Amino acid sequence: MRVFVTGASGWIGSAVVPELVSAGHSVLGLVRSDAAAERVRGAGAEPLRGSLDDLGSLRSGAERADAVIHLANKHDWSNPAESNRAERAAVEALLDALEGSGKPFALAAGTAFAPGRLVTEDDANPASGPDAPRGGTEALALDAVARGVHSISLRFAPTVHGAGGEHGFIPQVVEAARRNGAAGYVGDGSNRWSAVHRRDAAVLVLRALETASAGSRVHVVAEEGVTTREVAEAIGAALGVPAVSVAPADAGDHFGWIAGFWGLDIPASNALTRERFDWTPAHPTLLEDIRSGAYTC
């Protein structure tokens, strides 16, 4: 297949693209810069200049491909409303281009929509509409199955880790530990976060693209729930600072904007995904990556 990948040079995309190429697919990767274009070429793919705000480039990429993997997101935590708006508009443009084609459309989504319990692949995400998190695009994409789009929801763990460190939540916790001279967890640190290594994630994305049925929810989750206290202790050991409890009332001062997320209990199951796709994660765990210096060197 010819696969159009948004976010092709990003943290997850840069692992997914080589996996697709190794499996014999040709890849058209959306890029915003010359440097990103060179990275995509180096991975064996063809770059397509554009962005999430350039809806014409998104439509063009989808029309030129046999399948689409949408991984790009602005992730602007200082202006989440703008990130949600851009995501909604981008997915609407991609779905319009794919309508009636039966082409696979694999959409990056998340699992953190029901704090306090283990989310499974059978759970529907209640977020919908343009003002919802991520612009309600998981519901939008899955509803498009009725419009002749082979939509697949790729629900990524909140932590997608690996050598070099993710460009997401864990680096913020590490930076807070450096700034405060202590690696913190909120309260007793028993709240859990799911995690997946980026290379394990890439393997699963490929399998889902090739074999998932329309309307599938795929949990790109290797570890169902690592406690934040365990994460803080690993960060503390790597940095040579103590791991400490931070009272909920003080979390904002200690962690900054990530405090509201770091205190959540957001585990996610992977049982159905492992069974359906014969997927067994084989790369280092989150704690192993932290202890090896992936986030602190």
TrEMBL record:
Protein name, per record: SDR family oxidoreductase
InterPro entries: Epimerase_deHydtase, NAD(P)-bd_dom_sf, NAD(P)-dependent_oxidoreduct
Span of the signal peptide: none
Gene3D superfamilies membership: NAD(P)-binding Rossmann-like Domain
Domain NAD-dependent epimerase/dehydratase: 3-216
Positions in coiled-coil regions: none
Organism: Nocardioides potassii
